Amino acid sequence: MMEVMLTLAVVSILLMLTVQSAPKNNGHTVDREVDNIAFFFQVAQTNALNTKQAHVVEFDRTKHRIMIKSGYGEALETYTLSTCRILQGGLSGFLYKSNGDTNAFGTVRFDCMGEPVSFVFQIQKGRFRIER
């Protein structure tokens, strides 16, 4: 019985040391955050199309969050960034029209754990592309 307990203790200590020194896989975390941001923009566009009302997307650079508001300024959705940070410059916000088009074109830049990520918006059909 003592041998079994001693073996379990040694294995437990080795596992603790191994788990603590394992490198974190930040690539998947950044990928998930970028996907969530893209999904959030698509939600805003879909809501504008479904309700036939304009929806405003605003970027809060101090609290690092993205907000969807109705055309009347009512807050509908908020996404707080966990991995990425919104960088200064670029779009401060834009509007998805009731037909899904955007009213502005430009770029929103993020710093995702040292990796630069840009969302480039086009006016036609509310399209955007992600540059990494």
Care to describe what's here?
Strand 2 and strand 3 form a beta hairpin. The strands form two sheets. A four-stranded antiparallel sheet has the order 3-2-1-5, covered by helices on one side. The termini are far apart. It has one domain (about 25-130): minor pseudopilin epsh domain (minor pseudopilin epsh fold). It contains two helices and eight strands, in the order ααββββββββ. The longest helix has 26 residues, at about 25-50. The chain has helices at about 1-20, 25-50, and strands at about 55-60, 65-70, 75-80, 85, 95, 105-110, 115-120, 130. The chain has about 130 residues and is of the alpha+beta class. This is Competence protein ComGD. InterPro entries: ComGD (IPR016785).
Offer a few descriptive terms.
single chain; 132 residues; alpha+beta; minor pseudopilin epsh fold; four-stranded antiparallel β-sheet
List the helices and strands and how they pair.
Blueprint: H1 2-21, H2 26-51, E1 55-60, E2 65-70, E3 75-80, E4 84-86, E5 93-96, E6 106-112, E7 115-121, E8 128-131
Antiparallel strand pairs: 1-2, 1-5, 2-3, 4-6, 6-7, 7-8
Summarize the model shown.
By secondary structure, the chain is of the alpha+beta class. The chain has two helices and eight strands; from the N terminus they run ααββββββββ. Strands 3-2-1-5 form a four-stranded antiparallel sheet, with helices on one face.
Number of domains: 1
Instruction: Specify the CATH class.
Output: Alpha Beta
| Proportion of strand residues | 25-35%
Radius of gyration: 22 Å
**Count of DSSP strands:** 8
Q: How far apart are the termini?
A: 57 Å
- CATH topology assignment: minor pseudopilin epsh fold
How are the strands of the largest sheet arranged?
3-2-1-5
Indicate the percent of residues in helices. 25-40%
Keywords: Signal
Protein name: Competence protein ComGD
InterPro entries: ComGD
Signal peptide: 1-21
